[in-house]
Amino acid sequence: MRLQDDLACLKGLGPKSAEKFHKLEIRTVEDLLCYYPFRYDDFKSRQVADLMDGEKAVVLGTVVTPATVQYYGFKRNRLSFKIKQAEAVVNVHFFNQPYWQDKIALGQEVAIFGKWDSKKASLTGIKVLAQLADDLQPVYHLTKGLSQASLVKAIKTVIDSGYLQLLEENLPRYLLEKYRLVDRQSAVLAMHFPTDLAAYQQALRRLKFEEFFYFQLQLQSLKASNQKETAGTPIVYDEQKLAERLSALPFALTQAQRRSLTEILTDMASGRHMNRLLQGDVGSGKTVIASLAMYASHTAGYQSALMVPTEILADQHYRSLKELFPDLTVVLLTSGMKTADKRAALTGIADGSVNMIVGTHALIQEAVSYHRLGLVITDEQHRFGVKQRRLFREKGENPDVLMMTATPIPRTLAITAFGEMDVSIIDQLPAGRKPIITRWVKHEQLEKVLDWLNQEVAKSAQIYIISPLIEESEALDLKNAEALYQDLQEFFGTRARVALMHGRMKSEEKDQVMQAFKAHEIDILVSTTVIEVGVNVPNASIMVIMDADRFGLSQLHQLRGRVGRGSKQSYAILVANPKTDSGKERMRIMCETTDGFVLAEADLKMRGSGEIFGTRQSGIPEFKVADMVEDYPILEEARKVASQILAQADWQASPDYQMLGQYLKQEQAFD
Q: SUPFAM superfamilies attached here (predicted)?
């Protein structure tokens, strides 16, 4: 008997049945033991007087009226009857389940599992129970062809066969004692078949700590090995020259900008390879900090390169660097450049006459040879894969790396998603920046909004109107955008110049439209969500988002950040008739705050990390039982313990930690 035994070898389970489990990534006995329920149903009978509104529970009572079925609409019906529990009379309704009528008889005692409505003193039935249970019933995620009963039966078979005893303890004994954690075997048993709620909660607490502890162990180990293996080059910059540049800026840096700049410069000068994430909300001034770091690199005799996802952003950064440093040689390198311009840029980069380079993926192509590359900056870093970043590092002698993102990442996720990096956060907006006023309107009020837009265009305002997102379908998005564009052209006529931008246009076409919008040759830009993060049109002061409830908070905030970049008061208008509570809640929060970090935290709670980042692309792990937001104190404690263990010089020699050392040797999956 081994934990790695195939499920097909279990009694009552053959190869065909085992295939159904494979769809849930359950292949071995150990996989099955560690496949936990996502909730439990309590099938003990409850008194209706003790129930909370909306609570699911079992109510035991005597049937006092006949069960009748009322039909309405196509294949829709409602079964109704009343039961009496002590002195309370309860209305019971089953929707589209007429077959329960045969099981309900006057004077019979029945146990109904359903959802309690305290205002109507009624129970919306889910099922009629054949018998009452004395314990909590686990509920698992399933796949087609696999029932709860067959999954529970397989788990019972595994436990009854003695496999549970093969699960070894994987936490050091002193941690079990320190945090009063139950042992691993007891925890796994209580996850599947808890004797009571307290036993389940203790099991859950232990397994959450275990997941976070091993994850942090991996992360801290990776960070430590990065620091050992990747000694960088000390960039000894000229403090006097940098101070002069700082004082020459037309604005004062915020305290958060100064703090972030100090952290970056300290890393650069240290001789330790920098691997830092600069995180700041839309408009918080990350670009100027990156520019000053590039200037510091120049004063130490090194080149620096800034890589961005699109040509229009590259052009924008190129212009701002030339404006900030007119005395330096700054070049642009993109695949869309003329051959002669590209050849001249490549020659200057190779012979060292170029100080700063801005570009797209063209910066890491084979033809590019850097003279003395000291600093690499990637903007909107989640768009660049690990492979691309590695190629960049290989272009120089392991240059320092600074990554920037305007996606506000809650501290909880920053630790998790970018745990192998150091994180600098700019959490203040520059002085004088007016907060964007956000309003939520219903579709019925759209005409009033259009009349107001008409007045604003007459005052030289520029406006973005974002077409709704339909089921992630590019074809439908385009159809929607085109219909909206035509409607707006008809409404405004000659009073406004309306243009359209969408994802199916070529890059050069999109660039042309954006450049025309920047030059104020367009008043209203109708677009799908392809508007790039960071594109700067200071005169654009109004953002209208159609069907805004189709977007998550983080995306709404990113879209809103396209305005509010000039001195004008800016507005975001959310047009939506949300049908769900979460949709209404998103609209409310958007109108209440412009703080991206507050919104990101709320988005995380509503939708989970996977939807914000796209779990696969971001490298954020999916935990089986732990939750990074709700269980943040456990995550933080696990981080502390893991770093304390790894800080001990001879930790692997301790008998307490032998299993941890073996785990880290086996685990090579983390990139």
A: Nucleic acid-binding proteins (SSF50249), P-loop containing nucleoside triphosphate hydrolases (SSF52540)
Helix extents (H) in 396-506: 411-417, 446-458, 474-492
Full domain range(s) for residue 112? 44-129
SS3 call for 146: coil
pLDDT tens digits, residue range 186-230?
Answer: 999 999 988 887 888 999 999 999 998 888 887 777 666 655 556
Listed residue (282, 246, 248) closest to 265, CA to CA: 246
Between CA 507 and CA 261, with CA 284 as vertex, the angle to 5 degrees is: 105
The pLDDT of residue 474 is: 56
Q: Is 228 helix (H, G, I), strand (E, B) or coil?
A: helix
Q: Which long-range contacts (CB under 8 A, 24 or more apart) does 99-106 make?
A: 100/67, 100/125, 100/128, 101/67, 101/69, 103/128, 104/63, 104/67, 104/128, 105/63, 106/63, 106/64, 106/65, 106/66
Nearest to 357 by CA among 403, 287, 301, 308: 308
For residue 152, is it within any domain? no
Count CB neighbours of 662 within 10 A.
Answer: 11
Given the structure tokens 């008739």, which residue do they identify? 577
What pLDDT is stored for residue 557 in this prediction? 87
410 pLDDT band (50/70/90 cuts)? low
How far CA 278 is from CA of 235, 259, 409, 476, in Å, comes to 19, 11, 11, 36
So what's the pLDDT on residue 298?
95
CATH code of the domain covering residue 446: 3.40.50.300
pLDDT tens, position by position, 114-139? 999 888 889 999 888 876 666 677 88
What's the mean pLDDT when you consider all of the chain? 83
**Rounded CA separation 374/397 (Å):** 8
Report if residue 1 sits inside a domain: no
- Nearest one of 172, 171, 152, 135 to 33, comparing CA atoms: 152
User: Which residue carries 């996850």 as its tokens?
Assistant: 191
Domain for residue 338, yes or no? Answer: yes
Instruction: Output the pLDDT for position 613.
Output: 43
* Whether residues 122 and 208 fall in one domain: no
Q: What sections of 230-285 are H helices per DSSP? A: 239-248, 255-270
3-state SS assignment for residue 132: coil
Compute the C-alpha angle 244/250/255, nearest 5°.
80
Tell me the CA distances in angstroms from 32 to 22, 168, 625, 666, one per residue in order: 10, 16, 15, 21
Give the β-pairing of 400-405 and 373-379. parallel
Phi first, then psi: give them for residue 275, nearest 5 degrees: -140, 80
What average pLDDT does this structure show over 262-283? 86
How far is residue 496's CA from residue 453's CA, in Å, rounded to a whole number? 10
Rounded to 5°, angle at Cα 159 from 155 and 165? 140
In a domain, 7, yes or no: no
Cβ pair 7, 172 in contact under 8 A: no
Question: What are all long-range contacts of 13-16, with beta carbons under 8 Å and residues at least 24 apart?
Answer: 13/154, 13/157
